[in-house]
Amino acid sequence: MYALSPHIEPPQFPAPTSVEEVAAFIRLQNTFIAQYRNAFPDPLAPKTIIVLPSTTLDQDMLGTIPGEIHYEERMLSLLMLLRMPRTHIVYLTSTPLDPVIVDYYLHLLPGITGWHARQRLTLLSCYDASLKSLTEKILERPLLMERIRQCIPHGHAAHIAAFNVTPFERTLSVRLGVPLYGCDPELMFWGSKSGSRMVFREAGVDMPPGFENLRSEADVIEAIVEIKRQLPETRKMVVKMNEGFSGEGNAIVRLEQAPSDTSLKQWLENYMPKHLKMVAPHLDYSAYMAKISELGGIVETFVEGEVKNSPSVQCRINPLGEVEVVSTHDQVLDAATGQIFLGAKFPADPEYSREIAQNGLAIGKVLQSKNVMGRFAVDFISVKQGDHWKHFAIEINLRKGGTTHPYLMLQFLTDGRYNPHTGLYETLNGQNRFYFATDNLKFPHYKGITPPDLIDLAMCENLHYESTDQEGVVFHLIGALSEFGKLGVVSIGRTPERAVHFFEQTRSVLDTVSARWQ
To answer: Using one digit for the tens of pLDDT, what is the confidence trace for 139-174?
Structure first.
């Protein structure tokens, strides 16, 4: 435990978003280059990682996701870094984590006892379940920030691992005196829907026809009219807020009944308020257009195709400016709208995984030229045309996402690496591994299954990861299960079929047990 002296004078900091704060942040970030070069490659280097799993995104949109506060658990995959015996982790959350959940992750650590790892793990909570982002909650608690500072042992290299970076995270970085491994918030525009299209254009990567930097209902309607003029055969378009989460900021415009003459604009003005199909069910038309005015947005054609997939590529730009392809996935989207992210298969289809990896590298080089740093992902819509695939880049996410933690779990558990040249994941002994991952294994009857219940089921029904075979199931979002009937699963197998088999086995056990107790 760390005692806080009542005689400590509160430190003075520059005002949030001020020129002085930005300058202080840049100085901190410059120190991170040496830390990355010297401490990161050495598994025995003394270092502290402050894990900040704050989804600092539009809170109106995030509030629609059931159990959103438990998404802070997804970065518990970083507890696997405790396998390095001189590494300390400070893990921050809005509300306290159940010890059962923490023990579950520590049990997965290869080569380190749970006791040794637990001595190097500090869990700190805001005790605040409100809808504010976790970072805002921490900034409102100066004593908590002082406690975080005291948790960094003398002589340790320290950095913040954040889910995403906004001006709030920049302020926290400056107030803790610790650099961030992530994109400067001044550059986050390049991860918006509008910024993404501009980067795709500069990288020479195909994207759906459309328009960006829209700021009003009138802009949206004008964009639709112009696209329809250029491409009269277009039957469907997508409107997207610049900042969305899991497709919740998207809306569909159907144009099968639209006139083909100059009356289209007036037709849209009458049609859209009643028939624009928002993905987020809580938004009506006026609220949606208010968000477009606030956040900006784009309109682009809906990509049609009889055989169509939704792959993504995950990349990293390190502090030295090197661009690396980390992984590829085929995303699983909801059947109703085709817009909401439900899960992912790893790796992406070998027919095109190398192609999207090359596109990801081209996009990464453009982002690096703009001084972007950290993890990012690019989503595509891919359509099979004859014997080849046509790829349309859809968006860039300059943050961690739904495909980050499953891949980190696989990598930490197996010490392997994705090979972008073969499109396969290779373990140290030369074997391949695959997984199916989801944040949305949910059913109303799952409500009431507590974390201890789930762990007990996993042990009794053999629903766990087996380190000797490097196969099995790893859970996340465990804290959301009892209240929201929702669970995350990473199902790892030596073939894609075995990965799906372990997932289906898990779902079958949960279905059977929950039905028995109804």
So the answer is: 999 999 999 999 999 999 999 999 999 999 999 999
Q: Is the pTM of this model over 0.85?
A: yes
Pairing of strands 297-301, 236-241: antiparallel
pLDDT digits (tens, 9 = 90+) for 241-279: 998 766 678 999 999 999 987 899 999 999 999 999 988
Q: What is the 3-state secondary structure (H, E, C) of 468-511?
A: CCCEEEEEECHHHHHHHCEEEEEEEECCHHHHHHHHHHHHHHHH
**Residues 205-219 pLDDT 10s:** 999 999 999 999 999
Domain boundaries, the chain: 19-181, 209-301, 314-426, 433-518
**What is the dihedral angle through the alpha carbons of 479, 498, 112, 315, rounded to the nearest 10 degrees?**
-80
Q: CA 352: distance to chain centroid?
A: 23
> What dihedral angle (degrees, nearest 10) is formed by the CA atoms of 205, 207, 211, 214?
-90
Q: Are strands 323-333 and 311-317 parallel, antiparallel or unpaired?
A: antiparallel
Helix, coil or strand: residue 18? coil
Q: Categorize the per-residue pLDDT at 5 as very low, low, confident or very high, splitting at 50, 70 and 90.
A: low
CA dist list (Å): 456 to 14, 450, 502: 50, 10, 17
Please tell me the distance from the alpha carbon of residue 57 to that of residue 61, in angstroms, as a whole number: 8
Omega within 30 of 0 (cis) for the link into 347: yes
Strand partners, 239: 251, 299
Q: What are the phi and psi torsion angles at 237 (to 5°)?
A: -130, 165
Residue 451 token pair: 């974390």
Distance CA 79, CA 121 (A): 8
Say if residues 331 and 163 touch (Cβ distance below 8 Å): no
Is the CATH code 3.30.70 the one for domain 433-518? Answer: yes
Whole-angstrom Cα distance, residue 31 to residue 160?
13
CA dihedral 481, 483, 486, 487 (to 10 degrees): -20
DSSP 229-262: HH-TT--EEEEEESS-STTTTEEEEE-TT--SST
Fold of 314-426: D-amino Acid Aminotransferase; Chain A, domain 1 (3.30.470)
